[in-house]
Every structure is written in structure tokens, then in C-alpha cells.
Amino acid sequence: MEKVKKILRKTPYILLGLIFILGIYLRTKVYLTNQSFWHDECALAWNILNKNYLEFFQPMRFLQVAPPMFLIYTKIIIGYFGKSELVFRIVPFVSSLLAMVMFYFLSKTLLYSKKSVLCASLLFAISFPLYYYAGEFKPYSTDVLF
After folding, report:
1. Which residue, 84, 106, 102, is CA-closest to 141?
2. H or E, element range at 14
3. pLDDT of residue 11
4. Is residue 104 within 8 Å of residue 117, measured between CB atoms?
5. What is the mean pLDDT, run by run of 10 residues, along the chain of 146 residues?
6. 10 Å Cβ neighbour count for 7?
7. What is the pTM of this model?
8. 45 vs 103: CA distance, rounded Å
9. How far apart are CA 87 and CA 108, in angstroms?
10. In 3D, which of 47, 122, 58, 131 has the Cα closest to residue 92?
11. Whole-number pLDDT of residue 5
12. What gap in Å lies between CA 91 and CA 136, rounded to an integer?
């Protein structure tokens, strides 16, 4: 009987771990698919490659809009790892992973029952737009994070 109680106490944490694993899997799968850049991603990449850090605070070419810090972080990472589509997408990918963790802590603060925290975390982990944009070179995942 005592072992059953121990397992029942640990069950929410085991489920939470499985939810995080599922969310990480979905985001990693989309990221590693490495789709070709589409027009908006190409235009944003052009701005990063052809502008200096101070110019990120001015209007960009091709009617692109993105937070300056998103552009700066991406330019720094590209300087270290090179110019590949996967490298351009590192900031949205990492932001999406961090957003899952931050959402858990936020839901833990706002929701009272463990079941509702687990349900909210599951919905966040499997929400198509939230994991799809982990593999796009757009600032949507960083918007969700902040």
C-alpha cells in the first residue's frame, strides 16, 4: 500500500516529464526537417546578413519587421556557426523550448490543481502553431517566450 501511494505521488511528475519529452520531440522534428526558406525568411535573412547591429534599430528592407534583439542574437550566432538555414533557426527553436518551461511555471502559479497544470502543459506542448514556429526563421517563438 505504501508503494502505491509513493507511485501516485510521483505520477504527476512522470506525466509532466512525458509531456516535456513530447513537446521537445515535436519541436525538434520540425526544426530538423530543415525546410527551405520561404520569401519572408529569405528577406529577414538578407537584412541580417547585409546590415550591421545598429541598423537593426532602423526600418528594414523588404518590409520586414522583427525585434532588434532577435536580429542581434541571430547575427551573433551566425558569426559563430556559419550561414545555414538550421543556424538561422536556432533562436526560434531554443525560444520555443524555453517557452514550454516558462509556461509550466506560469500555469503552476495561476492554476490550482495539478491536473489543470498538466492539461495546460499538454495543450501548450502539442499546439501546432507553437511547435511549428520552432522551425521557422521568424520571431514568433520568441514572442511567445517573452
Report:
1. 102
2. helix 2-33
3. 79
4. yes
5. 63 90 96 90 94 92 91 95 93 96 94 91 95 93 92
6. 10
7. 0.89
8. 29
9. 33
10. 131
11. 60
12. 10
Whether 89 and 48 have beta carbons less than 8 Å apart is answered as no
For the chain, how many residues are written?
Answer: 146
What is the distance, to the nearest Å, from the Cα of residue 104 to the centroid of all Cα atoms in its chain? Answer: 14
Kindly state the cell numbers that stand for 19.
509531456
**What nine digits make up the cell of 8?**
501516485
Percentages of the chain per state (helix, strand, coil), in multiples of 5? 80, 0, 20
Q: What letter represents residue 2's amino acid? A: E
- Cell numbers for 97: 523550448
Distance CA 43, CA 126 (A): 29
Q: What pLDDT shows up at residue 69?
A: 93
Within 10 angstroms of residue 61's Cβ, the number of other Cβ atoms is: 12
DSSP states along 75-110: HHHHHHH-S-HHHHTHHHHHHHHHHHHHHHHHHHHH
SS3 52: coil
Q: What is the pLDDT of residue 2?
A: 67
91 within 8 A of 76, measured Cβ to Cβ? no
Q: How many distinct helices (H) and strands (E) make up the chain? A: 8, 0
